[in-house]
Design a protein that fits this description.
two-stranded antiparallel sheet, 5 strands, globular, three-stranded antiparallel sheet
């Protein structure tokens, strides 16, 4: 039986959050290697993972995350997942924010 805290944790801590964090970390490493102090992960960002190119990310490609962020629709799972990403990078000392180019999708901007 889940208590409320365990149920929330199980709902939020999943592959989507871990994938988002991985792609953001890979883009941070790429930016650092290019002597940049900021990076963006959007639906158009191509991230190389091993020999594969990944375009976008789960959260940047799904408009449900934008709608949740802008409170257009209530979605506690999307809101919690985005908060997990924000908390992860804030804890590590990064400045991270959600933005939008098109009013439909989010993108992440991280600086250090």
């Amino acid at each position: 039986m889940f208590n409320a805290t365990n149920a929330r944790t199980q709902s939020i801590d999943n592959q989507t959050v871990e994938t988002e964090i991985l792609l953001l970390n890979l883009n941070i490493m790429k930016a650092v290697n290019s002597n940049n102090v900021t990076t963006v992960l959007s639906g158009n960002t191509v991230t190389q993972v091993s020999s594969a190119n990944i375009t976008g990310s789960p959260m940047t490609l799904d408009p449900n995350y934008y709608n949740s962020w802008q409170t257009i629709t209530a979605n506690n799972v999307c809101a919690g997942q985005m908060q997990s990403v924000l908390d992860n990078f804030n804890t590590l000392g990064y400045t991270i924010s959600r933005q939008s180019y098109d009013g439909t999708h989010i993108y992440w901007q991280i600086s250090w």
